[in-house]
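User: Hey, my collaborator sent me this sequence without any context and asked if I could get a structure. I don't really work with proteins. Can you help?
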Amino acid sequence: MPFQKGNQYAKGNPPTKSSFKKGNIPWNKGKINIYSIKTREKMSIAHIGKEGYWKNKKRPYLWLNKIKKVTSGSFKKGHISYWKGKKRPRLSKEWREKIKNSNIGKHKGPKHPNWKGGININSQGYILIHKPQHPFCSSAGYVRRSHLVMEKMIGRYLIPEEVVHHKGTKYPLDSIENKQDDRPKNLQLFINQGEHQSFHKKLTSSQL
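Assistant: No problem. I've predicted the 3D structure and written it out in structure-token form, which is a compact way to encode the shape of the chain:
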């Protein structure tokens, strides 16, 4: 098929919707050098000295309009910020306190999206109970269940230095099952961590 002078693409007209269809096999597929040498030379020289069809014209494609809508109002190169050389107005202490306290307590306890009924397990494997009124609770309001059981046994709050030891009456000493066995007969109280460690050393030496 030789290059025709009246071809719509030679005039610079954009391709119509019916020109290319999905799955359509082009007529020149598998063909090599379909044009003669003279025709190819004419084709290479045809555009020289001619202005493009879209020069000084707005392209009607919708995606260009969408890009303009998205990018309009965004930061541009060379744009001077409104706050350049100006001092930003500081909020009053009252407003800062209102903003600070606006979210306090909104996502704590049952209001939290990950609320699991007030029972949790820490990274060491111990079971925690949500007791925000406890004097020695964590920042999230949790206390070890073993501490609560021991406090009920002795009738007072535990001092932060005191350590609750799991004896391992039913499960192996270092197992997670033993750490979660908070029955009164499986618990033992030590004054501090030093006594707790010395007790463990005696146990290991007796087992050797």
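In plain terms: The first helix runs from residue 37 to 46. You can pass these tokens on to your collaborator as they are.
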